[in-house]
Design goal:
Elements lengths: L4 E6 L3 H10 L5 E7 L3 H11 L3 E3 L2 H5 L6 E4 L6 H10 L3 E4 L7 H13 L4 E3 L7 H12 L5 E9 L19 H17 L4 E8 L5 E9 L5 E7 L8 E5 L2 E5 L7 E8 L2 E7 L10 H12 L10 H18 L11
Amino acid sequence: MNKTYNWAILGCGKIAEKFASDLKLLTNANLYATASRSLDKARRFADEFGFQKSYGSYEEMVADEAVDIIYIATPHTYHCKHTLLSLEYGKAVLCEKAFAINEKEVQEMIAASKKHNAFLMEAFWTRFLPRFRKVLEVIESKELGELKLIQSDFMFYAPFDPESRLYNLKLGGGSLLDIGIYPVFNALMTLGVPKNIEANAELSPTGSDEFLTMVFEYEEGKKAYLKSGFTCDSFNDTVFHFDGGAIRVSRELNDPIFIIKRKEVQNYETQSYAINDGDGFGYQFEAAHVMECLDKGLIESPVLPNSFSVELIQLLDEVRKKIKVAYPNHGEEF
Ligand SMILES: NC(=O)c1ccc[n+]([C@@H]2O[C@H](COP(=O)([O-])OP(=O)(O)OC[C@H]3O[C@@H](n4cnc5c(N)ncnc54)[C@H](OP(=O)(O)O)[C@@H]3O)[C@@H](O)[C@H]2O)c1
């Protein structure tokens, strides 16, 4: 019988609600504590989802000896600070994407995980979804031949608000770090590190990227065409193009995956795979994985190692340099 872990939520915002609701699906997850900058808010959150304790400061909660795992759900600009705080107390950390603002911060977090011998993983939840695992399986099997091209978008309309986390540079504003990270992740996970990157962005009045196109180029002419933005909506599909077929994956959980396999030129066999991504919002899979790692005494995930998160943030840094989006509060100036 596996151990039951005491989970704690640091920052009671929108994503924390979905994550907490998914934690309830896991029998070895005990909903233990919540922390907010406001005690009232922490209490309301705890009552709604059934956590035992609530704290009006993040520092107080991380000092609670009974806390095993801290899920960090604050804006990106605070991820490094809150991760370092949690690791210092020896807590296991699952930190939301983007892991931090830039590579320097991610390296600091990884060094702290090693120093304190405490688990650390980026909450890249899509890596653990059954639909993404199926895509990787098909790519690895080579049943559709060689992967040549990826088209991947993540866009939704978000009206301009200079104070919101999506637009305010002091909160890590910009489409790349918030949602463009998903298409970049899809490309990195399947085609690897590109040899060349092109990126073009439209900037909002705060200087954050509100619409972004990226082209990643690889050896043998392989390419990834990626988009993110807050200026319009999209189906947010990803299409993987092979020299023997294609896979189309919707972002909507539980939608089927479509696969076409070429039998001869312009003659395709079409398959649709019904994928069961479970009952929740999809965050239960990453949370379950963290506990599996802890059961094994690991301080990083073999499925989503921190070296992958370093490659990911390096790509994000490179794209931001090209589109000249810097976070001055983090010592950046491009
Ligand atoms: N995995 C996913 O699918 C997914 C989806 C959405 C967002 N995210 C990530 O999760 C993180 C949070 O996003 P969210 O949409 O949940 O944001 P949100 O609703 O604004 O919540 C962020 C929380 O952070 C805390 N916080 C601490 N300092 C803050 C400050 N100066 N300004 C604003 N909030 C502050 C607040 O909690 P208290 O008031 O309780 O202290 C706030 O509720 C982001 O990094 C984002 O990329 C991930």
